[in-house]
Design a protein that fits this description.
The protein has helices at 12-25, 88-96, 122-125, 137-144, 169-188, 201-212, 215-221, 236-245, 252-255, 257-264, 268-272, 299-305, 311-318, 371-374; strands spanning 7-8, 43-46, 54-59, 71-78, 98-101, 104-107, 111-114, 155-157, 194-199, 222-228, 285-288, 293-295, 331-336, 341-346, 359-363, 383-387, 393-394. A hairpin with a 4-residue loop joins strand 11 and strand 12 (293-295). By secondary structure, the chain is of the alpha/beta class. It is globular and about 65 Å long. It contains 14 helices and 17 strands.
């Protein structure tokens, strides 16, 4: 999930023209349209990791530091940039992290969270509340230029607490809300089927959601599914997030990387995005140190060696909870390719493992997601649009 200079290597702007053709020119079925009106396929967007705002409400009995608030009404937990700077970072980390007990991920006791803006798009336009870090704003604005489009009616978003993943109760609740949003959007738009558009982790979440829905439901309510840079088979960058980097990948004096790492190691969604078998071979190198090679076959040993005692159990909780087979709906993939993407990592100094910054062995992909992961849906898609010279959008986090 990297530095303030890193870029999102999927051109959402370049996707707009493709989505225009998809949403305006693909037959809509038997839907009555007023004379002179334009038939617009309504859209529901499922954002990726770190792409939804998260609000928190505090009623804590204790905190990590004396200066951290125990009580607070709803406020922005993700993302308010000032909270990541100075002493406030430790308060943010203590509230953002998760706990894992008896096989269940949950918030820190006394922390209640929610994702605002469900059904609207304002909470996915920018990653942060001050609008310094853009996210979906260009895509949303492009879709809003389609004649007949209306925010909150034909263009809608389904933000979620991206820290959670299947099989959590929170994700099951989200699936119910997503189903309701799609059905409501269908009704608001004269029974027009809905185009589901997802990015990054949102594509893995959407794939699993679609598996839970009946063929009859998908045929009635869904026009298509477009996945933008989907982390469908996992991402190698998440390995680095858990081992040495955490959410932010930047100079230690700016980001306090190891604090973010400790938070990242508690997040359910990070384990959900780890590379998967058989997309990665059991003996394929993921990470190397002078003393040991780590592959899918000995991932358990990696968790032990990097000091995460519950890592194996956390991984086992989520690793079989994805569905990446036939989604049962028309599928379009917007992917990057021929862009250097992490393939494996080499930690050169055993005495500093896992705290040092590793060397990166690069392969093909979109800059965040390896090509093999992006291709998971190829047997089931109608077409793939690939981008090799991406328009760069400011986005400091991956994937």
């Amino acid at each position: 999930m990297t530095s303030l200079k890193s870029q999102l290597y999927i051109s959402l702007v370049a996707c707009i023209d493709m989505l225009w053709l998809l949403l305006c020119c693909v037959p809509h079925g038997a839907v009555a349209v007023a004379p002179g009106a334009v038939a617009v396929t309504p859209v529901v967007i499922v954002p990726g990791a770190l792409g939804s705002h998260i609000e928190a409400k505090l009623s804590r009995e204790s905190t990590a530091h004396w200066y951290c608030d125990k009580k607070a009404d709803w406020y922005t937990l993700w993302l308010s940039i000032p909270m990541l700077l100075g002493p406030q970072l430790y308060c943010w980390a203590d509230n953002f992290k998760m706990q894992f007990k008896d096989g269940v991920f949950s918030n820190t006791p006394g922390v209640e969270t929610r994702a605002p803006g469900f059904g609207e798009t304002h909470s996915i336009d920018y990653v942060d509340t001050t609008h310094l870090v853009s996210y979906m704003v260009n895509l949303v604005q492009g879709l809003m230029k389609i004649p007949g489009a209306k925010e909150g009616v034909t263009v809608r978003a389904a933000p979620y607490d991206f820290r959670y993943s299947p099989p959590s109760r929170e994700t099951k609740d989200y699936f119910n809300r997503l189903q309701g949003l799609i059905e409501e959007t269908y009704t608001l738009n004269n029974n027009s089927r809905v185009a589901l558009v997802s990015h990054s982790l949102g594509s893995l979440i959407s794939s699993t959601f679609l598996h839970t829905m009946s063929t009859e439901w998908k045929n009635k309510y869904l026009h298509s599914w477009s996945t933008l840079g989907g982390v469908l088979g996992g991402s190698m960058k998440v390995v680095k997030v858990l081992v040495s980097h955490g959410v932010l990948d930047g100079p230690d004096w700016l980001t306090n990387r190891l604090v973010h790492r400790e938070v990242g190691r508690t997040i359910m969604g990070n384990y959900y995005m780890l590379p998967r078998s058989p997309i990665w071979g059991e003996d394929e190198l993921l990470l190397q140190t002078p003393n040991r090679n780590y592959t899918m076959a000995n991932l358990d040993q990696l968790f032990t060696d990097m000091g995460v005692e519950s890592g194996v159990e956390m991984w086992n909780t989520v690793k079989n909870e994805t569905y990446i087979g036939d989604p049962g709906v028309k599928t379009y993939c917007f992917n990057g390719r021929d862009i250097p993407t992490a393939k494996s990592f080499y930690y050169t100094d055993q005495s500093r493992f896992p705290d040092e910054i590793p060397q990166v062995v690069e392969g093909d992909g979109d800059g965040t997601v390896p090509r093999r992961s992006l291709k998971v849906l190829h047997p089931h898609m109608l077409s793939e649009i690939t981008l090799t010279e991406p328009f760069r959008i400011k986005k400091p986090f991956d994937p």
